[in-house]
Design a protein that fits this description.
With 60 residues, the protein is of the alpha+beta class. It is built from two helices and two strands, in the order H-E-E-H. Helix 1 (3-26) packs across helix 2.
């Protein structure tokens, strides 16, 4: 895989992650994450979206 193809793939995955998290935040859903100890925890998607993308949580 060339570097250009790799960059396109990474950008596509980043866009998909953004869109998925945005839709979950819009619906006020929870997502699963790992904490520092590796335990699975439920976290509000709105909180993660706001922290990760430094944007306000979307609404309908």
């Amino acid at each position: 895989m060339s570097e250009q193809e790799y960059d396109i793939l990474v950008k596509g995955l980043e866009k998909a992650q953004y869109n998925t998290l945005r839709m979950k935040a819009m619906r006020n859903e929870m997502i699963l994450q790992n904490d520092a100890d590796g335990n699975i925890i439920r976290v509000p998607a709105r909180e993660v979206f706001t922290q990760l993308y430094n944007e306000p949580a979307p609404t309908y």
